[in-house]
Design goal:
Blueprint: H1 14-17, H2 22-53, H3 55-65, H4 68-95, H5 102-126
Helix pairs in contact: 2-3, 2-4, 2-5, 4-5
């Protein structure tokens, strides 16, 4: 039978005491960066198609891609590429059965985050 007093019960008490873990955050970031790279790829494809279409259309696309927003998207995409790459290496390590304990998994998550930021900065400096 249906519970008549639904409003009297507390809502999910675990939500107030839950502390996000690095392993869950890094897993979520891997999915977000993968999907964000699709958006950046579509922007680059649009820019290339505009270049093949004609000078007027290319000016519009190029103005968008080289604007502050386009630069932001491309810079974040560079970070996403590095993060996604390092997260893939982390999964290869896990597939080999190594670093499966919580402490090592958390350390690998931080390596992915910090390493991707450092590699992004180095890439921007070199290019």
């Amino acid at each position: 039978m249906a519970d008549v007093n639904r409003g009297d019960r507390p809502l999910s008490p675990h939500l107030t005491i839950y502390r996000p873990q690095m392993t869950s955050i890094s897993s979520i970031l891997t999915r977000i960066t993968g999907n964000a790279l699709i958006v950046a790829t579509l922007m680059i494809v649009w820019w290339l198609l505009a270049a093949a279409t004609g000078p007027e259309y290319f000016e519009t696309a190029n103005a968008f891609v080289t604007s502050w927003f386009g630069d932001l998207v491309l810079t974040l995409s560079l970070w996403a590429i590095w993060y996604h790459y390092l997260a893939g290496l982390r999964h290869l390590i896990w597939d080999a059965g190594r670093c499966m304990d919580i402490k090592s998994a958390e350390k690998l998550g931080w390596i992915c985050v910090i390493g991707s930021v450092v590699l992004t900065i180095l890439t921007i400096i070199i290019i």
